[in-house]
Amino acid sequence: MATHRVNKSGKRAPPFTRIVNSSLQDARLSFKARGLLAYMLTKPDHFRFYLDELTKHTTEGKDSIRAALKELESFGYIKRYVIKDSRGKIMSWEIDIYEHPGSGFPVVENPTLVTNDKVLTNDKRLNKYIAFKNDDHSYIKTYLKYFSQKKNKQHMRITEEQHQMIYGQIEEIQSAGITHEEWEAEVRDHFETLPKSNNGNIIAFLHAAPRRFDVNLDIGHS
Length: 222
Fold this sequence. Notes:
Low-confidence stretches: 104-127, 218-222
Protein name: Phage replication protein
InterPro entries: WH_DNA-bd_sf
CATH architecture of the largest domain: Orthogonal Bundle
Number of domains: 2
CATH superfamily of the largest domain: Winged helix-like DNA-binding domain superfamily/Winged helix DNA-binding domain
Distance between the termini: 45 Å
CATH class of the largest domain: Mainly Alpha
Number of strands: 6
Order of helices and strands: HHHHEEEEEHEHHHH
Shape: elongated
């Protein structure tokens, strides 16, 4: 029996990631969790991970990915912490990934954020307004469908920071067990009773999510 490896030297060497053996050989972790950790470590520092994004790159379902994330968190490979605005309102949940429990990355002022391989700098791009359009996220697709029907126009533009917050809060809602059918029912009710003076911004809808879905959005450590 032999191990055949990819050539990692020379001008034509493919990109590769070096990972300490102890992490991938940690017998406390399932192979699923080790594989997820290895995949996440291939991404740049400060890459932002979302459940829907992770499931696009695997045959695993969301429940399976959630279980692997919780497994990694329980053994110190992942730490989650909340980001709040100046009023103390939850904006998003951030994930720190550790190649080895107890290790970590140095604190960086104004770090470069990378989302889906697109570089966003904290001091410039995060304050830029962008179009909020349909994408592959089923919950967002549903909201924008009812928004278009009610307002007969596209959703208003949002900042990069708001875009991250929206995805983070929807992920928390999904993690709380809210199905797409339940989400659509509340979105439909929202627009059926929406006053004309209300612009229908999804951010306002998400702020009311704890009441609508009877969930606590502070669920990152539950």
